[in-house]
Amino acid sequence: MDEIDKQIINALQDGFPICDAPYRQVAAQLGLTEQELITRLKALLDNGTLTRFGPLYNAEQMGGALTLAAVKAPIERYDEITEIINSFPEVAHNYARSHELNMWFVIATETPEQVRQTIDAIERQTGLTVYNMPKKKEYFVNLKLEV
Predict the structure, then answer these.
(1) Domain housing 25
(2) Domains contained in the chain, number
(3) Is residue 138 one of the residues assigned to a domain?
(4) pTM of the model
(5) Angle at which helices 22-30 and 34-46 pack, to 10 degrees?
(6) Same domain, yes or no, for 93 and 129?
């Protein structure tokens, strides 16, 4: 990652314009061409520096739901269970943890009822209990990591 990549990451953490040519607008602010910005973003995604580039939605305000969940995945089945859980389109991301509950994941659904349905389906397919940990209150932190 060079200095230009760092400038791109820092600039885009503050938002992305909603206009006819958002990449062109950001590129101009950074002294780049639109194609150079797009090429660099693709490279950052391809090499794993960025894991995603896209909007964050408030699922609840759109009628959907989110929850944090976890399972006790036996080490000998860990990869199998990871594949099963990650096969659900409702699973946003998945983390290995050094804890009795060693696999944590976020479930995002179009309706609140679908959270329970997804948990039930994961339990059926894995044979494991899913521990559902819905949020009580959300705190907006506005995390920005300067690179």
Answers:
(1) 3-46
(2) 2
(3) no
(4) 0.69
(5) 90
(6) yes
